[in-house]
């Protein structure tokens, strides 16, 4: 028993350290939100076409899905919004906020004005 315990401990010591996630390039330095924490949705949008993400910063979207939009990127990233997909059955899809092109959705319900300009951080574009 002690040999197996010693072996397991030895293996853990020699395993390379693993850093979960990775930093991806920023799409923009600023974003527009409803509040300073970007915690309130700006609007609800409906997907007019499917979108298959190119990397982990983006979320997949199927035509007809509802998306809660929390931020609109500015400057060089103004073609992208950040939001969370809501499926037809609550809880059917894991809640994850990610980016998507604003051209694949149509605004259906404005909720709050996006008057607060917020600087993006490395965590806005961090991949798990």
Automatic annotation (TrEMBL):
InterPro entries: MIA, SH3-like_dom_sf, SH3_domain. Residues 40-110 form the SH3 domain. Pfam families: SH3_2. Gene3D superfamilies: SH3 Domains. One of its GO terms (biological process) is extracellular matrix organization. Residues 1-21 form the signal peptide. Keywords: SH3 domain, Signal. This is Melanoma-derived growth regulatory protein isoform X1. It comes from Xyrichtys novacula (Pearly razorfish).
């Amino acid at each position: 028993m002690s040999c197996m315990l010693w072996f397991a401990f030895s293996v853990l010591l020699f395993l390379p350290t693993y850093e979960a996630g990775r930093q991806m390039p920023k799409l923009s330095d600023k974003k527009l939100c409803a509040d300073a924490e970007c915690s309130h949705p700006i609007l609800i949008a409906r997907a007019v076409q499917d979108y298959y993400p190119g990397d982990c910063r983006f979320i997949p979207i199927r035509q007809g899905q509802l998306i809660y939009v929390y931020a609109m990127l500015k400057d060089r990233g103004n073609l992208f919004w950040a939001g969370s997909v809501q499926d037809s059955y609550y809880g059917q899809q894991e809640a994850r906020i990610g980016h998507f092109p604003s051209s694949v959705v149509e605004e259906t319900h404005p909720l709050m004005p996006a008057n607060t300009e917020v600087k993006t951080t490395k965590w806005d574009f961090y991949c798990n």
